[in-house]
Amino acid sequence: MSPSLAPPAWALLLLLLSRAPPARPSVDTSFRDCARFLYKKQPPTGVRGDGLQWICQHYEGTPRYATLYDPARRIPLYSAYTFKRSSGERSVGLPWMYEPQLSKVSGTGNMLPFPQGESELQLQESQAVLADYADAILYERGQLNPDEHQASPGDKAATYTLTNVVPQAKEFYRTQWAPFLDRIRQRLNNYCRGTPFVMAGVTTAGNTIRKDNLDRVAIPRYMWLAYCCPDFDPNAPYEVRYKLPSYAAYGLNEVVSNSVTEVSSKRLEALIKREMPVDQDFQLFYDNCVIEV
After folding, report:
1. How confident is the model at residue 107 (pLDDT cuts 50, 70, 90)?
2. By its UniProt entry, which SMART domains does this protein fall under (predicted)?
3. Which residue among 102, 180, 292, 293 is buried most deeply as judged by most CB within 10 Å?
4. How far, in Å, CA of 284 to CA of 46, rounded?
5. How many Å apart are CA 20 and CA 43, to the nearest integer?
6. DSSP secondary structure letters along 222-263
7. Whole-prediction pTM value?
8. What is the DSSP letter of 173?
9. Which SS3 state, helix, strand or coil, does residue 100 take?
10. Cα–chain-centroid distance for residue 238?
């Protein structure tokens, strides 16, 4: 299908949602506001799963990025965002937030700071809460859309919601994933001239964080990231040039054997097909991020 014949992304998403189990009434089922964060406004194809929820992540009344959330596992399967050029500094002291669209606590479409006391208990059936991470000493709250890939205070603040977070092994994050995210930041800062579209997600394998003898939050087996940069510098050095317009990476979310491997987007798709219940036509970016000439 040529781009000129492709239906609007919101129409495809509505079709997907119409085939899914009924969502909570407060979930933003149109998703139109967040189509801008997807390359060609098209979500990945071939994704399957019961009860998955599309979240258009709003902060202070502004759409910030898109997330496919799994309420049963209480983690995002991926977040889709547009990379913003930045110095890589992380914000300090921002509150962690929850997603009212998944809960009956509030009808607002904006993410909000976690309430204190009993009110948090009303949220825990639909999403992860701060208490889930309190005793998980081997893991930290790993953002899929990372603070350091955003620039404005609002975009940075919006990454601090648990619907954008998965349990990430501390050693893996600190020694492997964080340096990798910074390499990507520098690469896109320097050689992507247009808007880079990024997908960051996970695969799951059954391990969970438990609380009160209950499975609460799924622990990803792999972390992955892929980008599509439609307008890039053709004079980039060779070691960068072959990783444009699109490239990807994955890493094993473990204490040991956790190096990050950069691969083509097609090889990442093959890994996801092996690890997750997706269709054989699963594709991260519309038309494989092929740049028209």
Report:
1. low
2. Endonuclease_NS, NUC
3. 102
4. 9
5. 16
6. EEEEEEE-SSB-TTS-HHHHTT-SEEEEEEE-SSSS--EEEE
7. 0.88
8. I
9. helix
10. 29
Helix-, strand-, coil-residue percentages of the chain, each rounded to 5: 30, 30, 40
On the question of pLDDT at 24 being above 50, the answer is: no
Q: Which residues fall within 8 angstroms of residue 118, CB to CB, at 6 or more apart?
A: none
What single-letter amino acid sits at 259?
A: S
Check if the beta carbon of residue 29 is closer than 8 Å to that of residue 266: no
The pair of structure tokens assigned to 202 is: 């996970």
Cβ–Cβ under 8 Å, residues 181 and 149 = yes
Encode pLDDT of 203-255 as tens digits.
999 899 998 889 999 999 999 999 999 999 999 999 999 999 999 999 999 98
Give whole-number Cα distances, 12 to 42, 183, 227, in Å: 8, 34, 22
d(CA 195, CA 202): 23
Q: Give residue 159's identity as a one-letter amino acid code.
A: T
Structure tokens at 230: 């439609």
- Residue 67, Cβ neighbours under 10 Å: how many? 25
Q: How far is it, in rounded angstroms, from Cα 286 to Cα 45?
A: 8
